[in-house]
Description:
The chain is α/β, with parallel strands linked by helices and 312 residues long. The protein has helices at residues 29-35, 50-59, 69-75, 87-97, 114-127, 141-152, 169-184, 269-281, 292-311; strands at 3-8, 40-46, 64-66, 80-83, 103-106, 130-133, 158-165, 187-193, 196-201, 205-211, 220-226, 229-234, 239-247, 255-264.
Amino acid sequence: MPLRAGIVGLGRVGMLFDDDPNRRRVWTHFSTYERLVDRYELVAVCDPDAERRRLAAARRPGVQVFATLDELLDAEQLDVVSLCTPVDAHAAQVQACAGRVRAIVCEKPLSTDLPSAEAAVGACAASGTLLAVNYYKRFEAAVRETARLIDDGALGTLRAATTLYSGPLDEVGSHAIDLLQFLLGPLDVQAANGGSALLGFGDGGVAALVAAGRREDLVFELDIIGSEGRARVLDNCARLETSRFAASSNYAGYRELVPVGTLEAEAEPFLALFTELADAFAGGTTTLTADGASALGTQSLLDTIGADVARH
Length: 312
């Protein structure tokens, strides 16, 4: 039987990105539930904006519409709720849903600060509610392949990484921080300046987080160098270039990076995240790729880097 689902917040990632004709992939929670009809049934939505509620009802006749989260939770018995609201509402809404639904998919980042994020994760743990945080770039094909190369030792000992992002630190920079943490392991902030930061990882590894301008000038790249090779995730995670170190033909006693191959593949990361969540209910997996615990690590780094942004 499909899981009964609801969406809180019908803005861009909740529903309105679907109005962009240039977006080829699934980019909203609304479309995700429509595509995964064998796993989910979208039964209710809520938003304080009456026009958005009207659009949702016209798009999916029969869906129940509400103005507030309290009204939705009081009226409907849901298995899963998507929180697609402004970030300053996330933590309180997670706590309001904990124990009243079986699972929550919260948009990233989890909160505006670490203490409230910890309270939200704690509420879910105490009530047995599964919490997924939509760091969907973890599910991109290029990122998954990079993770495999690292796990298999193809890159050797990781030494350095650089990630570039354009746009706000919370909405976009959080993705970059999350991917660094996902691929490199725990990070510590060594210096921060205006949304950029120098981070340490592993045994002396250094990672640079670089803010590259406004969101409309789309830049999102990740470059990782290890003792045996290199992986470059490019074009907003649509392409992966890999290289390996080989004996240099130009300089005796040196090695140079030699191209190995290119992977160009567009995954459906939203669908992968929600499919994994449904599998968890069906007993197919015991852990989530992007859960509350991993989101706390990203939140801690965001707090430190964001504190510098606030000072400036």
